[in-house]
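Sequence in, structure out.
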Amino acid sequence: MSSDMIPLLSKALGETVYMVAVSMVIASAIGIPLGVLLHTTGRGQILEAPVWNRILGAVVNAIRSIPFIILMVAIIPLTRAIVGSAIGTTAAMVPLILASIPFIGRQVETSLKEVPYGLVEAALAMGATPLQIIRRVLLPEALSGIVAQLTTVIISLVGESAMAGAIGGGGLGDLAIRYGYQRFRPDVMLATVIILIILVQAVQFIGNMLARKLDRK
């Protein structure tokens, strides 16, 4: 691989990290409360509301069922309305965030379901409010599982950010398509794949380490 590709690879890696990091922060800020609602409004839970729970679950499932490449194209008007363009790194974050929110919601819901209900009953017996139970019982007890689940979401975002390169989203995917595929540069394609593998391995290692440290069992 020629030396002139190194700056391009560095720039593309920076764009990928930027897309994934910002998308993950915004999606988590919405997705984690969504997961809490999905769990706590279920039947027999502290904020039981079966009708709202079914409606919320149906919306989440509907968005999750849309393949990411179709979602990117379908919301181009929304992307333009939010960031003023449908092309570029910032524009690619809109579908990334939208796709990640329901994914995070379901992952958080799964982690919260693993918290023994006896802990919730004990908190209720001591007069704790639903908000106190969420903050002091459910989230702390499920934190290790939530971190592990969010690690999976980050890895998924890395793959989806590469896919965003198909419509000019920037990052390693865009570089692989423009140079590796369109200009017949297998060395560039191989380099981007290796970088993505290393990035995913690093994310998984850090996520596993944090999950182990936060595990209360």
